[in-house]
Hints:
By secondary structure, this protein is α+β, with helices and mostly antiparallel strands. Helix content is 36%, strand content 18%. The protein has 10 helices and 9 strands. Helix 4 runs antiparallel to helix 6 (177-192). The radius of gyration is 19 Å and the shape is globular. It starts with a helix and ends in a 5-residue tail after the last helix. The structure holds adenosine-5'-diphosphate and magnesium ion (MG) (2 copies).
Amino acid sequence: NKIEDDYVMGEALGKGKFGSVFMCRSKLTGVEFACKTLPKGEETVHREVEIMQHLSGHPGVVTLQSVYENGESFHLVMELCSGGRLIDRMTKEGRFSEHTAANIFKDLMLVIQYCHDMGVVHRDIKPENILLTASGKIKLADFGLAMRIANGQSLSGLAGSPAYVAPEVLIGDYGKKTDIWSAGVLLHALLVGVLPFQGDSLDALFEAIKSMKLDFHSEKWQSVSKPARDLLERILTRDVAARITAEEVLSHPWMLFYTERTL
Ligand code: ADP
Ligand code: MG
Ligand code: MG
């Protein structure tokens, strides 16, 4: 089957580096989906599809419905996240309350923990790749840079988005904990309203990531509660071995205090 046989294409939802994403509607059921079209030349398309299929068992991962192939492209039909991107909600709201931030962060940590347990490093955790459902639940998207790694295996290629990249990625020897760092950059943005590392050039930004000391006791972070600052500090730790894991984040006092417990 061709995608045109099964779906009616709709409005554009977003544009990324390689592909574009459009809304589409199943001719059979009338249900709406998102369709990401990627050029066939990219070897990474196969990996993106394979990893999405591998991770389909978690409610926090965007589900892949089906894949179509034609002359020059692949079409990935995915579950539609009609609530838009987290980045747009952040731009609109500025800073989030600690309660809201903790609950978003808990859901993000649960899905990152799942990816890691399944042997996958996402490598591009940022609010442009975190989508929202109609009811506001987060869904991790864009597995275009994701990699499956064996226990103890490390990666070396520079990948990710400059402001979110972990220091060990810049050095060129990294693994799952890189996702925790990127999530920490995001948590900082949620709580403070700005990114923790900035620079006038890419070099200046990377220099800040590799060496800037974040003193969470300084004036700048006074509006953030002490437990939240403690968590940020434990995540934005350059020493990878000392940086906390997803499990440890989930049991941190700040997370437990603000997130609803489900039995
Ligand atoms: P890229 O790899 O090019 O960054 P993404 O997978 O991140 O592509 O998708 C690009 C944009 O398309 C997203 O930021 C988002 O705005 C939109 N998008 C992607 N997937 C969905 C989806 N399942 N539902 C709604 N919008 C989506
Ligand atoms: Mg993306
Ligand atoms: Mg991508």
